[in-house]
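User: what does the whole thing look like in 3D?
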Amino acid sequence: MPVITYDKQLYQCADGETVLQCLRRHGVSIPSSCESGVCQTCLMQGIRGKPPALAQQGLKDTLQVQHYFMACVCVPEEEMEVVLAGADITHLLEVEVLGKEPLSDDILRIYLKPAEPFDYKPGQFINLYRPDGLVRSFSLASLPQREEPLELQVRVLPGGRMSTWIQDEMSVGDKLAIKGPVGDCFYVPGKPQQNILLVGTGTGLAPLWGIVRDALDQGHTGQIHLYHGSYTADGLYLVDELRALERAHQNFIYMPCVDEAGAAEAGDATIGRADLVALTAIPDLKSWRIYLCGHPDMVAVMKKKAFLAGASLSDIYADPFVYSATDNASKADS
Amino acid sequence: MTQSLYEKIGGEAAVNAAVDIFYRKVLADDRINKYFEGVDMEKQAAKQKSFLTFAFGGPNNYSGKDMREGHKHLVEKGLNDSHVDAVIEDLGATLKELNVPDELISEVAAIANSVRDDVLNR
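Assistant: Here's the predicted 3D structure for the full assembly of 456 residues, as structure tokens:
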């Protein structure tokens, strides 16, 4: 019978026993409720060994590929090391700064080279550690399959401790540390014909830039509509790259949007909030896959609206950029 | 062999088909949607799946205690019989949309109704 490792202890499963039963029999308490593989209260993650498919039924695909499972219906088929869902399974990794370049007046792109192989999905995020210990989260915009260096997009905010330091002091060759990857907002292959809507505000474009290129790289054939919203036209970046991607891929559509206040200089951009413009253009989202990144209010409201417009909750992937209370910093916007 | 209610409705596949429709109806229902504001939608959907599995007579580990604790803060905000009625009505409309026969809908409604006192902490 398989052995389960949990919190550095080994537990022998009896024949036909679930992970929940086994741990409980050994006096380990795991939160649970329905105990029928439905409510996900006993959600755990396998960090070694693969959970059986039955134990993952009904979980979002981004959770499945990260080996999440429900302990109450998981009869392990092989040795597994497991942790409670949400446990931190990442470790610190040294990175070297390879480059830094402006993307707009206040947005920088930085490139990092990890000291050892680093596995991640475009759209996930990492925590970046400054030598003095200051930490901020940034989304990964690069593609691991292309062996690109890790790419982060940073908005420099007045008073943002990390972002002003990155702009003014961090230089090529500096050694920093990262921890990650974290997050469930990324592309999972398997439904190449499904239409995809992506809505991002500000540097919410960073994960979406990774996700769009990842989907195209993996041969996605359904339509891919990207709406990028900014208060002003200055905040629209990667415009030329996105237009080039549009020319190269018939199924990719890029829609930059600028708020009414910035209408005078909007150029080609549509006037209006990106989420509202998208919903007006695509009012029926039944069977669409949705990615939402950026301002937390936009993400929360659009998640509900997309669901009410017909998208299945299991097809909605969201990454709200939460602000740091101390200096108005946030994931990517810091 | 007689089929259970859960089997007649279509088992887990029926629960999966029903959960999005049901949750959408609840969110669009002005009588009750204020009680769902600001909740984590994924967690809420998982809870609703448990509830639907239970109401369809499926495998569950129903505990009145969980239902009581889960709704206590809502009862304090005014949750009452009319709101439970609305939920059961939305549940019936969901099943009707999925072409479940009326007599089975009545059975589901009766199971859902059986937890009314737990939900309302009476």
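In plain terms: Chain B has one domain: 31-119. The two ends of chain B are 39 Å apart (CA to CA).
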